[in-house]
Fold:
Amino acid sequence: MKPLNADLHCHSTVSDGLLAPADLIRRADANGVELLALTDHDELGGLVEARAAADEVGLGFVDGVEVSISWGDDQTVHIVGLGIDPTNPALGEGLRQIRSGRDARAGLMAEELDKVGIHGAYEGALRYAGNPALVSRSHFARFIVEQGHAKDTKSVFDYWLAKGKPGYVSHTWATIEDALNWIVGAGGIAVIAHPGRYRLSRTERRELFGAFKDLGGRGIEVLSGSQKDEEVSEFARIAREFGFLASRASDFHGPGESWIDLGRLPDLPDNLVPVWSQL
Ligand code: AMP
Ligand code: MN
Ligand code: MN
Ligand code: MN
Structure:
């Protein structure tokens, strides 16, 4: 049987994506996606529009979210929640709390960028975000490209915004306990997002996966837009060992700003249980 073209991780203009929720749905449909989850960062505001557009074109839709957590020694980890109830009060309030820290963080980032010659970055990033509670490093990256300091958003991260670079400001996000409680409490399945992107040793990674599982986490993105072939094999092994469900997740943010387009990842490796079999 032909595997389902599922893509369970992407972003709209409601967080740091470039397409409005309905446009994202139409692009997914045009690309042959059969089941899509919208997973904006710490925000549920695009789900109603996305679901309505998905119903219109006959695309399967999953309510999702990507929650930012702090882990270990100043690491940021992302946990995707799939099939959450968007009206769940504890989830809504928890996400609101995470978002409330973004504005002050953006001010600190702009101060640091100012010192290295990038001026007006707070106002510039806010222009792209539209809302101080949603301002992210992606919006800073767009402003910095616009100002001619870098050729594309990826190089902005390499020079200014990644951990250890001049514009990086450490930040406290949710705890892993909170994130899992919110997602599971809202009836969702928690999935570790892009596991290859964390700067963790093998031992630290296993600690993260173990803690995640103990708290009710059930899935891992074996396929992610930013993951190389050898990482896919490694996370497929991890999924089998820990008994995790496997996800297929482009993490699409917009044309020209993404690793891969919607619905274009390869099929999952063999002998894995797809997370969508449980949604
Ligand atoms: P924030 O939540 O404000 O820390 O912003 C994180 C966002 O920045 C991620 O969700 C990605 O969209 C983007 N991002 C992080 N690292 C990179 C990178 N190396 N290249 C391009 N985009 C990145
Ligand atoms: Mn993002
Ligand atoms: Mn992420
Ligand atoms: Mn993402």
In short: The first strand starts at residue 6 and ends at 7. Residues 102-115 form the longest helix (14 residues). The mean pLDDT is 97. The pocket of adenosine monophosphate (ligand 1) is lined by residues 16, 41, 68, 136-138, 153-154, 157, 162, 253 (CB under 6 Å).
